[in-house]
Amino acid sequence: LSDGKYHKQIRIEENATGFSYEKLFLEYLTEIVSEVWVEDPYIRSLLNDVKLLQLYNFLRFCEMLVKAPCKVKTIHLLTSYDEGGGRTQQLSGLEEIQQSLRNYGVTLNIAFSSSIHDREIRFNNGWMIKIGRGLDYFKKPQGRFSIGYCDFDLRPCHETTVDVFHTKHTKKM
């Protein structure tokens, strides 16, 4: 693995379950992971529920990092601004996540790019995960009280591909 040539591909089929963030990421979150980079242009919160789910997906991902066996100290988020009326809600949501992470000793650095397109997650132990749909590969729950609303292992997924790489040197943002 240390030669930097590792590549694994996971196909998530339409409506498949069992692909929570823990299932996808935990094996790569070794004890030495202290820094995480998330590049996803769509961590937004337009006033409709669908976009709001993307902020919740990022929050879920952060919760998984806080609970993981490693001691994450810094999360770097690179995303794009919400177009139109959602920007205020996007910023207040991200600031709330930032404040909440501080209570766990984790710093969230937020940056915005208008040209970002690709989605990837990198850990400072050399692992990089690219998901075609970014963190937003879960389908909207049937209702607020339906199975899968809280437990992402039970939430049906959209079809997507997950590519896992190991590189000796991950690029810095």
From TrEMBL:
InterPro entries noted in UniProt: MIT_domain_contain_protein1, MITD1_C, MITD1_C_sf
Any Gene Ontology biological process: midbody abscission
Domain MITD1 C-terminal phospholipase D-like: 18-166
A Gene Ontology cellular-component term: midbody
Domain of life: Eukaryota
One Pfam family in the UniProt entry: MIT_C
PANTHER family in the cross-refs: MIT DOMAIN-CONTAINING PROTEIN 1
Protein name: MITD1 protein
Species, as recorded: Aegotheles bennettii
